[in-house]
Amino acid sequence: MAARRKPGHFSRMRHSRLTGLLFLCAVPSLAAAQARPSYRDPSRPVEERVSDLIGRMTVEEKFWQLFMIPGSLDDPTHDYSHGAFGLQVRGGDTTSARAHSARIDSIQHYFVERTRFGIPIIPFEEALHGLGAPNATSFPQAIALAATWDTSLMARVATAAARETRSRGIRDALSPVINIASDVRWGRVEETYGEDPVLSSQMARAFVAAFEHAGVIATPKHFIANVGEGGRDSYPVDLSRRQLEERFFPPFRASIVDAHARSVMSSYNSVNGIPSTQNRMLLTDVLRGEWGFTGFTISDAAATGGPTVLQHTEASTAMATKHALEAGLDVIFQSSWEQHRAYLDAFRRRLIADSVVDRAVAHVLRAKFELGLFEHPYANLDSAQYWNGRAEHRALAREAARASIVLLRNERGTLPLATTARRIAVIGADASEVRLGGYSGPGIAPVSILAGLRQRFGAAVQYAPGVPRVVTTYVAVPAAHLTAVDSGRSVRGLRAEYFDNITLAGVPRVARVDDHIDFHWTLGGPARGVTPDWLSARWSGKVTVPAAPKPVRIGVEGNDGYRLWIDGALVLDDWVKRSFGTRFATGTMKPGSTHDVRLEYFETSGNARVKLVWDAGVVDDREAKIADAVALAKRSNVAIVVAGIDEGEFRDRASLALPGHQEELIERVAATGTPTVVVLVGGSAITMSPWLERVGAVIDVWYPGEEGGRALADVLGGDYNPAGRLPITFPVSEGQLPLSYNHEPTGRGDDYLDLTGQPLFPFGFGLSYTSFEYSALAITPDSMAAVDAATLRFRVTNSGARAGDEVVQLYLHDVLATVGRPVIQLQGFQRIHLAAGEVRDVVFTIGREQLQLFDRDDRWVVEPGTFRVMVGSSSKDIRLRGTLTVR
């Protein structure tokens, strides 16, 4: 451990020389030792140290050990004199790992040296697929790591990320996301390990174990289910105990019981009507009572107050705080220092029993003692510089990206690219743009797909940007083009009047100037006393059209219940409440002209949205861009169209098709007759029916990390044989959703009147440049007692001419059970490498863990009966089948 350094920017906060010596003496004097409190004595048991420190703390000091936020000491109005659980310390103006580490250390010095008890903070950060900070290695997104189906590779990636994280002094990673991706419309599928509890559990176990071993607390999230009906983020869920136990609990159980995660984050939504932050069944009965969890629980950001403003089950934030801690929540996570006041109120008013508060504080302090922060609170700056962005980590990022790439289609040997391909057209905005996925740092010199292909194929690569993912047909009218009169003077914006009724009646509750009209009021209204579910508003002033180059259409986007006047004429009248949409006035406004404008709006049921829009400055160059791409494809030997989706937190998708005009781009490029390869960039499923049969090959690269461009070039050029497998099901159409491979048997059939019930690409699917044969299945014994285990053995042969990886997958089905069982359920997998012609024996063990079910009496049991044992290359591609009897 590095020697103690000066605290830099915060040196003015240091104690006296004498106090400093008391902190630093390696061998204290007898008098000092006798005077030292127990919590300062590392030789004392942790529980004794925890109890001693809690006994000395005030209520306010206890509260701050239960409050975490992004922050620093830069704002002198923010008072941290009572301490804090921890801070998410961004790098500020610094970009190097060393500078970031020094910044964290300088803040840590304040808490260690300037607060009453010197309790260190736990610096925390996101580390979903690499530390979310500048100059840290960005590995492939979580869903891509799941697509490797390689837990040893996941462990190596997590170990590298944990080293980079720990070396900066960050001791808590708010990762991994281990929610089951039960609906691929959810915008956060990319952050997960997919739809299956077994695959997710094994990936979670590898990730968490690596971080905890490195001395960084892992925080699996979001406990327990973060996606609801319609694939919508944080929607309420109603789940039976058996659904929870068999599908949603396993990744969390594996993280806590097996990998010993010391923290858990709750979710925003409610579970069976109870907000997750207050769900005693989850936070206390299951987590601590059944799983023996001894760490600390934290809320998602701002979720502790959710019952007050979202679920409406609490009258005040103070009471929401009380009930959350009583249910088993420990740490309140908020987004800013100012927000602490509402939560501190519950502590100051003594609404929460001392025993409840002390229990929560004990969970936090125990972690701080176990981390060794009281003895070694600071980082080693040289270590930060050494570990972050190491060449080995960048090489590992490339290895992981290659392993995650899934080949979905490869007709007539389109791939790998022929060595005779001297003209390669690369088309699409995602080819030149590097997107690393949600909760990512910037990466270290990320390599785009275009750059990777140019490095591999040189001058053969020619580029056309094609069409963008997002099509803009209108924009909010900017403040620069709006004017109003306020207090006798002309100002930018429109005069706004807000009413606490829905009829614009009486005197406005609030009058002000809004610089532009683009509002979405959900949790709160536009001003104090005006709620988002019962309001009306009027905006008035003048709008000036740009001088060039064309006439402009003006309109409104939002919930209907609006009227728009231009120059005193009613041009839009949508005053009947019905839905959401965008409407434009039928006429246009001349370039350079100025007009009176008045917009009226009302809302009666919440989720108020209104935007004044026009099409000024919007250029529709789609046809020209597609024509350029088509021309390039015509003069090339092969066309590679890189297409992507947009998604993310609270960015769920109603349509799974490629957005914008990317489908048209693919179809017209393919129509040239040039062999076409489509490369998909995104973290979830994509529908492909309009264009799939027209292209030669389809590859899913997910968000492949900073080395993704080189990794894809390795695959396209044949230097690496793809072997990624889908961790989610790809549907033919959104109408099939939710669609998971491991559903229970239906009461009738799986199909629709106008569509199959089968997926476009099934869970576990992925192609290779070689072929594999399965044979010689043997189950020993084929009949056993419930307490025993059977050995499954079979043979895999690489029957092709190229070396490659195969992901062998073990599935089971309980033929006759007392409760409904999945039609097929993954119970094991192995990724193996075989040279051309090589034969390998593969072995699985089938025991209680694979055979058990959660019965009608809420017990985990292994029932006697017959189990169908299936081995294959995907959930649909079953190559071998046998039976196992449990007596």
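[next item in queue]
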Amino acid sequence: MKNENPCNCVHIAEEIMRIPTYREPEREQLPMFAENRVHQRTSGRVYPVPIINRVIRDRKIDKEYKAIVLENEYIHLIILPELGGRIFEAVDKTNGYDFFYRQHVIKPALIGLFGSWISGGAEFNWPVHHRPSTFMPVDHHIEKADDGSITVWLSEHEPLHRMKGMVGICLHPGKAIFETKVRLYNRTALPQSFLWWENIAVPVNTDYQIFFPHDVTHVHFHYKKSVASFPVAKSVYNGIDMRNGRDIRWHRNTVQPTSFFASRSKSDYFGGYDHGKKAGVVHIANHHISPGKKLFTWGYNQLSRSWEKALTDTDGAYAELMAGVYSDNQPDFSWLEPHETKTFSQYWYPLKQIGEPRNANRQAAFNYEKSEGRVEIRLNVTESFPCAVIQLFLGDERIWETVHDLLPGEPYVAELEIAEDIDERELVFDVKDALGNEIIGYRHQPHHNVDLPEPARTVPPPCELHTSGELYLAGLHLEQYRDPCVSPEAYWRAALEKDPGHALSNIALGRLLLKRYRFWEAEELLVRAVNTLTTWNPNPRNGEAYYYIGLSLKYQNKLDEAYNAFYKATWNYAYRNLAFYALAEIDCLKGDFHAAREHLESSLDTNTQDLKARDLLAVVLRKLNYAGEAANLIRQTLAIDPLDYWAQNEIQLIDGLEADRSIFDSMDSNPEQTCLDIAFDYSRAGFFVDAIDLLQRLIKYKDGVDNICPMLYYAIGYFYGIIKSNKESEDYYKKARAADPRYCFPSRLEEMLILRDVLSTRKDARAACYLGNLLYDKQQYDKAIECWELSANLDGTYYVAFRNLSLGYFNQKKQPDKALAYLKKALTLKPNDTQLIYELNYLMELSGISPSERLDMLETHSEM
């Protein structure tokens, strides 16, 4: 690529980019629960998201995408917000090298959790791998800093758990490196496990080499189930026989598809290098929090060729360099506590004419090659260092020095003559700037042979574990790693059979039941935990159990008891932020805004990054007529997170901005679900009018769109009912019943309460079906089936209820004949539905019906 930006500055532009695209089929309209589905060796549950379950390859079209072009004089990036915020193109402008794999077609394959996935560029994977929303739009915001840098923020409320994840792609003037600034915020009331891997596709060939730091002695496979020495593998690894010795740094030496996760390193870098093109890429991150260094390759066999054909037309083979934070394997999940924010940065930059670096950091990458009587030094720098001092030492004795202007994009190469008998292990290299600050250095690091660790063990069944403590830890692991097949509940219940008072197991099981909306059962377990923890003293060591008790009581509308429990949780620092926030919500419900303000300020004293506490405090200040103070707080919040939509809504209310300055203009990642999140934030604190206003403005903004989610109307109707506006309430309930039911898959606690309230006084077949979906997802199977039966009885034409009943009766009630009858009824109501045909055929096969009988039955119940 020609360098078209010679000045020392960063340019940004939003453009329309036409890319040949294979069209994506319509998302599946039936709820898919997939309770034991395995995806990337962890849970493949997809509810409440509609999925794609097929690909279309009949033709491709030139499709227009919104593209954000970010570049300086060295690096050119293209970002596609409509495709998960993927970096689509990354080019070293000094030599035109695509240091990320550049696709020239959008050709989705069924690799993602929700279906569609494409290769190429950079994918930001969280909270599971691959990023579930990888083929969905994200919100974006462009931020220009005083130092001339520009950051493109990409954000979403992720669709599985409604946590908030964002990455800022930042480019500075005069630097041949870009930064990914990450903010992960758990905006839920319960802890969630997560992982973060930046997944970079790189163009590979037989000259491509992966490099890990020199202290990496071995590699693991997924889940650490297999291990091999590095760089030369000498064992059977993931079923691949490498006992004759295979240098797995070289891409050509891996035939079968596999992954290599590096063992823990004390260095901050890894990457890949194409020796034929003399160019590559390096990743830099603090190894203390970013230990994950991985290569995935499709290899060189028939399977790799099949996947290459499935994912691209002409762009050839690729591999994936992945960088994990708080994670060194997959699955390897960490915890994000309620209202916790984790922030970190990772860095990427291109390499040129350097070979495999022996050391790299954010400022430079260094290599040297030694042969008889000479040493060749090679340096890449990411910024200008005039009058840099480059030195070579033999032990403590300096044997060579030069002063040179080091410039990004201009590799430094120097060849020195040295004595032939010099021991390479005594060479020490040092590069300093003109002020004496180190740019980079290197001294020989011996590669020690170490005994390979044993592969990771599988968690044994509960009957093989002997103590409550062992059972608790096994269950915690299964919960944290989102095991797709084994529930932690069995382990915690086994622990409680051995010791009914085991506090940790009671708390863990209580927390799990809170996530399943079984509050009364959770309360009993959590109180039992407190009784154990207070055997010898009146107060437990920390407030965890009291916080969960408070939640269970609040969700049962026992506000006074919940208030007492939350206050007890504030005695412990770890739960002060959460408990004071919960107290403030109850204060607001009671109209005591002065107490709410005090509690929110105490919450923020503990956690200044808590966006929800900041936003709720702004609401309280507005209600107390301190509009100026509220506006200042909100503007400070938007400086932290410019895509915090609760904050944006508040500033619009405070400033009285008109509709043409709507917060919805930048909402690309499912604005209906994002606005429901915020509306429920308002409603939990009793601000029902504000919740109504937000949702009504969204509906008005979407005027003319015929597929508005019914839950928006149900929520408004419910809120109107609470404030005694009964006519408006009924009007919106009518709109909800008439709304398009496709893709209405409720999952939140508030949605359960709303739908239960609807059904308490009204006959609403759709609401009954929606509530059944939610309860089935929360493993309240009998209640879900009751809801679906009610829906089918109220509306004998609604095929979704009959299909769902077939799932319930087959999977839970173990009545295949009844399940088969319900599925036949569904297909009669919805002929030619491919998912129903698939499910009916599968169910008949499980029931032992012959292929010819199955074909006759399918022809009878559809219009094939």
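[queue empty]
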